[in-house]
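Researcher: I'd like a candidate sequence for this fold, 426 residues long. If you have to choose between options at a position, lean toward the conservative one.
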C-alpha cells in the first residue's frame, strides 16, 4: 500500500491541440468585396464529391446515374423463330446441283435436326429446328401427303427473326454516366440484368425554422410564407433527384436549433436551411450552425441572393447551405447553388445548360450583378419567346415560371427582341 504514498511525477507535456479543418480558400472578389455567382457555385461544388456507388435493383435505380458500362448477358431473342406460318427449311436445299428450284421436299415431323432436303411445319414465333435457315410461307408451297410441293424459294434468314437480332450477348447496353430512365431500365431487363452499379440518391435534409413556425393546417402556426419556404425547397430538392427529409423547428433558440440539426446529420448528404422571413430567424440558425462546424458568409454580386451562408458541419463535415428567408429568393438561390451540388453528389453533370431565347419586353438589370429573372416562355416557329414575370417576389406567380433568365454582370438592360439566355426549370 506504500505505493499510494509516493510522489507522482506530473506530466508536463503540453496537451495536443486538434485543430478543426478549415474551409478551402475563398475565390477572389470584386472591389466591393463580392464574389461572382459562378465563382461561388464552383467553390461550393469543390466542397463535395460524388457519393460512393453500390449495386441496386433496377426499379430502385430509376433516375440514377450508372457507374459502369453494361453489356447484355443474353441473346434476344434467345433462338431463331418464325415470322410467318409455313415451313422451316434449309434455304440451300431449295435448289438442285444445277441451280434449279426443287419441286418437292419431304415433310419432317420428328424432333431434332432438320434433315437435308426436308421441311418442318412451324407457326408464328415457333423456334426453328436446328439446321433450318429460313421459312417458306404457306403461300409458297402445297402440302401433298408427306411431301411439300415448292412454288417459290427463299434465301437464308428470310421470314426469320434471328437469334440475337434485337440484342446479342455481349452487346453494349449503357455506358458509364448514362441516366437510368424508364426505357433504359426496360433495356437492361431485356438484356438479363437485374442489378446495376449506381450512386444512391443524395439525401437532402431541408430544415424550416423560425419563431412560432408550425406545419400547415396546425392551429397556432404563424408566418405562412415561412412554412411555404421550406416546403418549396424540399419539393425542389426532390425534383432535382434527391431523397428528401423535411422537418420544421418552431423556435429561434440556438441550442434547440443546433440539436435539431445534429439529429438530422445521420441521414444527410446535404443540409439546406430555409428559415422564416424575419432576420432573427436567419441569424439564429446561422449562430446555431456555427457551433457545429466551419460556417462562413459571403457577399455575392448577384440578385437575388446577395448574402450566402454555407459551411461544413458535424464529424463527417456535411455541407450546409442557408437560403434567403423570402421563398422566391430562396427558390432562385436553390437553383443556382443547391441544384448543382445535388447533381454532383449523384454523379451527374452539375453544369446547367443555357438556352437562347428572344425577350418580348424591355428588361432592366442590376449593374455589376448577375441577375436571375423569373420568366415564362412560349415557342413559336422554333423560337423561344421569353416574358419576365411582372411581380418578381410574388410566390403565387412562381407557379407560372418555367425559366430563369441569366443576365451577366455586364448587362444593364435588354431591349424587346434581343437575345437572352435562360435555365429551364422543368
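Model: Candidate sequence:
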Amino acid at each position: 500500500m506504500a505505493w499510494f504514498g509516493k510522489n507522482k511525477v506530473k506530466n508536463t507535456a503540453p496537451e495536443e491541440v486538434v485543430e478543426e479543418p478549415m474551409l478551402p480558400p475563398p475565390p477572389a472578389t470584386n472591389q466591393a468585396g463580392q464574389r461572382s455567382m459562378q465563382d461561388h457555385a464552383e467553390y461550393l461544388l469543390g466542397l463535395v464529391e460524388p457519393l460512393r456507388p453500390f449495386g441496386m435493383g433496377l426499379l430502385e435505380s430509376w433516375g440514377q446515374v450508372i457507374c459502369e458500362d453494361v453489356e447484355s448477358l443474353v441473346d434476344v431473342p434467345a433462338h431463331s423463330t418464325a415470322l410467318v406460318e409455313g415451313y422451316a427449311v434449309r434455304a440451300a436445299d431449295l435448289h438442285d446441283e444445277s441451280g434449279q428450284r426443287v419441286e418437292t421436299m419431304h415433310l419432317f415431323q420428328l424432333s431434332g435436326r432438320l434433315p437435308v432436303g426436308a421441311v418442318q411445319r412451324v407457326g408464328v414465333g415457333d423456334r426453328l429446328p436446328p439446321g433450318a435457315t429460313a421459312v417458306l410461307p404457306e403461300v409458297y408451297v402445297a402440302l401433298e401427303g408427306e411431301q411439300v410441293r415448292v412454288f417459290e424459294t427463299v434465301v437464308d434468314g428470310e421470314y426469320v427473326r434471328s437469334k440475337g437480332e434485337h440484342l446479342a450477348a455481349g452487346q453494349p447496353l449503357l455506358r458509364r454516366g448514362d441516366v437510368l430512365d424508364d426505357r433504359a431500365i426496360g433495356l437492361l431487363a431485356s438484356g438479363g440484368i437485374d442489378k446495376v452499379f449506381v450512386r444512391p440518391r443524395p439525401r437532402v435534409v431541408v430544415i424550416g425554422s423560425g419563431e412560432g413556425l408550425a406545419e400547415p393546417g396546425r392551429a397556432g402556426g404563424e408566418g405562412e410564407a415561412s412554412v411555404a419556404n421550406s416546403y418549396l425547397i424540399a419539393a425542389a430538392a426532390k425534383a432535382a433527384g434527391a431523397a428528401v427529409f423535411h422537418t420544421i423547428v418552431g423556435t429561434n433558440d440556438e441550442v434547440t436549433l443546433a440539436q435539431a440539426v445534429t439529429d438530422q446529420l445521420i441521414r444527410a448528404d446535404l443540409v439546406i436551411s430555409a428559415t422564416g422571413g424575419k432576420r432573427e430567424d436567419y441569424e439564429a440558425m446561422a449562430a446555431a450552425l456555427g457551433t457545429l462546424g466551419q460556417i462562413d458568409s459571403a457577399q455575392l454580386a448577384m440578385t437575388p441572393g446577395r448574402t450566402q451562408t454555407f459551411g461544413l458541419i458535424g464529424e463527417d463535415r456535411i455541407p450546409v447551405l442557408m437560403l434567403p428567408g423570402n421563398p422566391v429568393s430562396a427558390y432562385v438561390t436553390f437553383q443556382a447553388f443547391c441544384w448543382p451540388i445535388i447533381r454532383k453528389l449523384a454523379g451527374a453533370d452539375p453544369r446547367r445548360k443555357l438556352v437562347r431565347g428572344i425577350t418580348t419586353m424591355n428588361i432592366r438589370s442590376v449593374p455589376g450583378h448577375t441577375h436571375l429573372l423569373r420568366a415564362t416562355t412560349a415557342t413559336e416557329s422554333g423560337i423561344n419567346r421569353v416574358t419576365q414575370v411582372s411581380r418578381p417576389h410574388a410566390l403565387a406567380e412562381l407557379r407560372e415560371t418555367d425559366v430563369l433568365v441569366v443576365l451577366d454582370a455586364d448587362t444593364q438592360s435588354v431591349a424587346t427582341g434581343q437575345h437572352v439566355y435562360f435555365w429551364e426549370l422543368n
